[in-house]
Amino acid sequence: MAKTIVRLEKVSKNYRLGEVEVPALKSVDLDIHAGEFTAVIGASGSGKSTLLNMIGCIDHPSSGKVWLGDVDVLALSDDKMSDLRNQRIGFIFQSFNLVPVLSVFENVELPLLINPQISASERKSRVSEAIADVGLEKFSNNRPDQLSGGQRQRVAIARALAGHPSLVLADEPTANLDSETSLKIIELMLSLNTKRGITFLFSTHDERVMNRVSRIVHIKDGTIRA
Amino acid sequence: MKSFWLLSLRNLGRNRKRNFATGSAIALGFAGILMLAAYQYRAVNYARVYTVYVVHTGHLAIFAPGGLEKFAYEPLQHSLSADDQAALVRVLKEEPEVERFEPQIRGQGLIGNGCASFPFIAQGYDPAADKALREHPQVRQWMPHFSYLLRGRGIWEFEENMGAILLSQGLALTLGKTKLHDEVAPDSEIRLPDCTQGKAQAALDANVQLMAGAWAGNVSAVDGEVVGLFTTGFQESDNSGIVTSVSHLQKLFGTDRVTQFAVWLKNPEKITEVSARIEANLSSQGKTFDVLRWDDAKLSPYYSGTAGFLRTLLIAGSLVLATIVTLSVLNSSTMTILERSQEIGMYRSMGFRRAHLRHLYVQESLWLSLLSLFTGAILGLLAIQGVNALKILYHPPGVAGGLYLFLVLPWAPAIASAALILLLVSLATYFAVSSRLRPSPADLLGGTLR
Fold it and tell me: Hey, are the CB atoms on B449 and A85 less than 8 Å from each other?
């Protein structure tokens, strides 16, 4: 049995809309194991994004526990939680979220700048390696506005990988891409999972990727269905 | 972190119009502060030099005990005797920091042209000191356009027993004494004027008569020879002032005493220690005097009033400008940070701590401020040069003949105000970004990892 890298125990999340409390997650239990290539699927508003936010430690649950490895995430200070995200989790955003004034190389380098354990030379080598992994070596010095949508998402993937995270999270990473490019991005993520053993967890609506993933998590009305 | 500085510098290119507007507010505000500071610095130094050198106050003024307040109505009791003067000369000559010292005598009386008499206020100076002070480097530096002598020559150019007198320009007109010693034929005699012919008769020669109550109580009078016309720079004293030698006024007041000693220092920064040393040395000779600093409000009310007013003006003006600059930056930072909420969420997701982002955005504001302050400094210097080149004559209240608007930039306050602007800008950005860092990264991203 592969090592559990994320565990959610009875995690609930309620949002307040005016006077009304709206449950987004209802007592969710979930384990994610090392090396999995997992898709979270569900209708809009089912709780996919909220689930990814909890796993990514970028939001607090209303109740329950979140474990990242053996770390009780909710017991950490904000700074420690930031460090944990920096060193263990890679994020891929739906709208890429690249810094427009930085080159591809500098965008990928960004999360490494705040990790004091990584020397400048190691940083450069990790960035070059991540850019090579996504096949953008020729575009290292380009700015995001000089790239296509698919290339931009590759940069975002490289940025997520550069920190050598134990988990990469992506919320609908292909939502802003055409179908052909979307498939290529999923293929790229899958090849990184296969070759490097990187754990991916992503939400998607795209039914074509269902037969490529090692695990599917169905979510409906804030509850995980078997 | 070096990379943060680079990133924040590059970020300036992201919203050029807004950054240009904010940068312009900073640059123009700083240029305004520089001009205000330059005006204040120049005006305060003008007042300082006028007080210390032009009206012979000195850096230190030494009076008999209570002399400053009581001399006017009890001159004999509250002036410096010959013995006091000898002690002062001994001590002051031994003090290495003293550049120059001078006994002075002051008093008032009536001055006549043979037909009519008018009140005067007299200053009796050492002619050699008067000459040296008119040509003092500080006077040349800070009052380059000020012309003390309007016509004629200084008293230092004439023998002391001649009774040479400088008349203030207003008093000369009142007396009708428009002819000076140099303009009268050397062999001409003093003629009694025909008073029915008006002031034209008074202008026939340069002779005037001074009459005053002698310090011993009797009435005394001496002749005087008008050798020049001067302006005090102030309308009130321009209608009643006369300047002559100490010996001439001593003759008029029938005394060997003087009102005070003025002392000029080589390095005015050392005034406190020199003053203490002089007092100690006088005390060792059994003499106790009142030693006053030149900027004492009792001794120099004109200087203290002017300097206080200008200081208040500078502080108030600078605060207004700094507030405008700070609010502009606060507004701009708030807008920028609101627009970049999603980006902040992205940074936070990647593990940037709140402190990292505060640094990043404060550094961005600091770059903008530094570039704008540099531009503002150039604009301010150009404006100062421009104003000086225009030689604008203006008329502050009480100043005879007006002053040239001549600005001199003091570097220390300029650097201090730049540092203050940087501090305010940093604080404004810090608070703007801090408030935006409170939500969770997910909220900043818009609820999802978008």
Answer: no
Which residues 234-293 of chain B have a CB within 8 Å of chain A? none
pLDDT digits (tens, 9 = 90+) for B187-229: 777 677 777 776 666 677 888 999 999 998 889 999 999 999 9
> ipTM of this predicted complex?
0.94
Q: Give how far A34 is from chain B: nearest CA, Å.
A: 20
Which chain B residues contact residue A45 at CB under 8 A?
Answer: none
How far is it, in rounded angstroms, from Cα B37 to Cα B380?
A: 10
Q: What CA–CA distance (Å, rounded) separates B135 from B54?
A: 10
Q: How far apart are CA B30 and CA A67, in angstroms?
A: 54
Model confidence pLDDT, tens digit, residues B385-408: 999 999 888 876 656 566 788 899
- Report pLDDT digits (tens) over B146-196: 777 889 999 999 988 889 999 998 999 998 888 888 888 777 776 777 777
pLDDT of the residue at A226: 60
Tell me, yes or no, if A61 comes closer than 8 A to chain B by beta carbon.
no
Residue A181 at interface with chain B, using a CB cutoff of 8 Å: no
DSSP B189-229: PP----GGGTHHHHTTS-EEEEEEE-TTSSEEEEEEEEEEE
Report yes or no: B442 at the A interface, CB cutoff 8 Å.
Answer: yes
Q: Chain B window 337-376: which residues touch A at a Cβ cutoff of 8 Å?
A: 342-343, 345-346, 348-356
Under 8 Å between Cβ of B290 and B275: no
